Amino acid sequence: MLISPTLPALSGIEALRARLPHPLASQLRRASELVTLAQQIGPKLVVPTTVAPLDRILGGGLARGSLVELVGHRSGGRFAIVIAAIAAATSAGEAAALVDLGDGLDPRAAEEAGVDFTRLLWVRPRRLRDALLAAEMLVATGFPLVVCDLGVPPVRGRVPASAWLRLGRAAERHETALFVSTPYRSTGPVAQAVVLLERGHAEWRGEMFSPQLLTGLTGRLIVQKRRGESGPLTGLSSFAASSLWRCHSCGALAPPPPPSTHSRRAQKDQWQKGGKEDEEERNAVSSTVSAAGK
Amino acid sequence: MISARIACLFVPLFPLAARLRAEPPLAGEALAVFEGNGPAARLLAASRTARRAGLRPGLSLAQARAILPKLVARGRDTECERAAQEALADTAESFSPRVESSGDGIVYFDASGLERIFPGPGGEKTLGRAAIVAAGKAGLPARCGIAASKLAARVAAENPDSPTLVPGGEEARFLAPLPLVRLAPHAEIALTLERWGIRTIGELARLPEGDVTSRLGRIGQELHWTARGIDPRPLEPRQPPPMFREGMELEWPLLTLEPFLFLAGSALERLAGRLGAQGLAITRLGLELRLEPDGFDVREIQLPAPTRDLTALLALTRLGLETRPPGAAVNGFTFIAHPDQPRRAQLSLFGPPALSPDKLTATIARLAALLGADRIGSPRTVDRHAPESCALAEYAPPPPPELRRPPRSGRGLLAVRVLRPPLPLEVLTNETMAPAITSRRVAEISRESETVPHRARPPAISSIKTISPTDDRNGKGPSIQGNVRVASGPWGVEEGWWTDHRVDRDYWDVEIDGGGIYRIFRERGTGEWFVDGIYD
After folding, report:
1. A46-240 in CATH: which number?
2. Is there a domain that residue B422 lies in?
């Protein structure tokens, strides 16, 4: 048996223990426990959300086999994070399930965010109890990512705390990344990480004489609870609006280009120009109608 | 030349065995199956407990009850027997593709060429034992006989010491010591032979064929051949059934769902077992209900994908019956399963994990039963302008890539949480806060408003408040209230003006004091306001 010259002659397990970090070494009693320790210290599989601040906070993303809770009020960007996580998983070729208690998914926006619909199962329960049942079934089916969005308050229905515990245990057993998005703290002690999303501010473009357009939202991520990983405790998230709206007066697509190329003055000009074009078009139509009348 | 070998699976007291297969809890009871109705009902078969108490075939129900007051009596159930016969044939089919189903618990199958699977001198014995075990798994206590002819195989299968093997060419020797009644002769001929003093098959076989034929005719001649072990009848293989059936006649009509589902679950379990033995799954499930006093209710239960999952099948049956009750008491039912190959998945060593098709199908079916079929699926966009419009498609994910690939970098887009249905809104407008527009433009808009109402001057929104929903079906909706800080709009949406479902709206994005940002709209036709989305 080869023994490192820097170590005194110890028994096998003692030599191994000497090489391990202190907290783990004190836990090691038998060689069979090495497997458990290897799982603890080895790299955990994660499902990235592609929201950089959240991924940094969570140590790379949503860890497989654990429940992560995201708590946030309205218009903080919580649903945008949900969509981003689903887009990331499905674009990587993994199946994902969205349990959408609020029935709030807009397929057009989700498609624009990069969600691969063929890999997404959309479940729309009406009550919280059904949502948890559905989530448990999906976890047991083997979905790598199950997202449970509880919508906006008031959440429909109540469940005992043990239901969340059971769901968390199921996620652990089936190695599923379970992501719960909720307006208020719901899952109890089972969550591996709880992140609070505080509403920042909305960004509007255009003022006074020009039409105002919503261009984005910001939010602040604050870690409320985290087991195991170390990392930043806060982060700033921001989301940009990408709308398909078209101004019916001027025909401009929103969001407009950055101010450097599309100044307030230019917006105003375009608005007025659009108005003139409309007027010209209407005049042309009315003249055609009157000509037909004659 | 390879001599033909035919195996026979025989279920003694078949009507009783079929009943017990459908109602396993009756296994230890003193059970008797009667044929006929009322006083004309005659005992057909009885369990061992009942036979020990003295019950014999032919007794009336009253006589049987007089002997054994605790007797559990059941009528003969042709549906049960048909399903049991099919199950026995399915069992035989798992050993050989050439199977003949003769009815009444008798099935023959071709045992030639199975030496490779059951090798050695004891191969046929092993085959017989395996067939008996397989039939037992299908709920039928069968016996097995293997011989060169169907007749010898059947007579051998009737032996209690099962499996019984008859070596090729020794059929006559095997049959000789057996009583003549085992050949089931016609009653008249049996009486004649008894008068002659013929008791065993061997005694008949030893008589000259010409004398027997001249005295007993053609039937006597055939009986003489069978006594000598000659059976010219070939095996007549059956066509595999296009569908599988399981069901039963009920002793009394059922009015409530739960007892029916208890029996239905048992029937579905048997059905799934039969399909499982052949590596098949159910792609379509029909349910035929026989109603009281007469009439049928035939329905079809749609399955998202081929499955054998009992929980999912039962949940869908429950859902179907709850959605559309049969309207009368049920006194019999039959499940008809259309088989198909189950979905297979090839696992990848290096790619993301694939979902098990069986599990996925079962989960989707259970979720559809729990939430409704319209509440689960894969989302799709629709070719419409109304922002709340969406569609669902069947969820059938493609196989995962062979190699794990990195996720696409996020676009960081803001999402809208759609409110379905839109919530009615009370909106206060403030004219002094109207967006500043040049006086020339105001004059134009005012002039236009006479002919083009929707191009009228847009209102300046000062505050919004949700009106409490009167429809309790969806529960209480979110409460939205506050003074508007920023309002952006209107953005016009118009579609379907040529249909009854016209959409003609002006949209605004508004931010209220509390910080929430909402998408609201006004119906141009009615002037009503709604909120249909939350920027989140």
Report:
1. 3.40.50.300
2. yes
**A257 touches B at CB < 8 Å:** no
Q: Whole domain around residue B460: which residue ranges?
A: 416-535
pLDDT, tens digit, for every residue of B242-271? 889 998 888 888 888 889 999 999 999 989
Of A75, A114, A248, the CB nearest to B411: A114
For residues B147 and B262, membership in a common domain is answered with no
- How far apart CA B230 and CA B162 sit, in angstroms, is 23
Look at residues B99, B57, B104 and name the one whose alpha carbon lies nearest to residue B84. Answer: B104
Assess: ipTM above 0.90. no
Listed in sequence order, the residues at least 6 apart from A96 whose beta carbon sits closer than 8 Å to its beta carbon are A86, A89, A90, A119, A120, A121, A143, A144, A145, A146, A147
**Three-class SS of B406-455:** CCCCCCCECCEEEEEEEEEEEEEECHHHCCCCCHHHHHHHHHHHCCCHHH
Residues of A in contact with B534 (CB under 8 A): 74-75, 104, 152
In angstroms, the separation between the Cα of residue A159 and the nearest Cα of chain B is 16
Tokens of A234: 């806060």
Task: Find the residue in B nearest to A243 (Cα).
Answer: B414
Number of domains, chain B? 3
Which member of A75, A124, A216 has the closest CB to residue B536? Answer: A75
- Please report whether residue B479 resides in a domain: yes
Interface of A with B in 200-229 (CB under 8 A): 202, 204, 206, 208-209, 211-214, 216-217
pLDDT at B145: 92
pLDDT tens digit sequence for B302-344: 776 788 888 888 888 888 888 788 888 998 999 999 988 877 6
The CATH number of the domain where B65 resides is what? Answer: 3.40.1170.60
The residue among A73, A83, A201 with the most chain B CBs within 10 A of its CB, best to mutate, is: A83
3-state DSSP call for residue B384? coil
pLDDT digits (tens, 9 = 90+) for A24-79: 666 666 666 666 655 555 556 788 888 888 888 888 889 999 999 999 988 888 99
Residue B302 lies in a domain: yes
> For residue B290, what is the domain's CATH number?
3.30.1490.100
Establish if B368 belongs to a structural domain. Answer: no
B415–A82 C-beta distance less than 8 A = yes
Q: What is the longest distance spanned by two Cα atoms in chain A?
A: 113
Considering chain B, what is the average pLDDT of its residues? 84
Mean pLDDT comparison of A206-220, B336-350, B360-374, highest-scoring range:
B360-374
CA closest to B367 among chain A residues: A134
- Identify which of B379, B478, B511 has the shortest CB distance to residue A117: B379
Contact A104 B534 (CB under 8 A): yes
What does the buried/exposed string (b/e) look like for A19-38 if buried means 16 or more CB atoms within 10 Å of the residue's CB? eeeeeeeeebeeeeeeeeee
Mean pLDDT score across all residues of chain A: 75
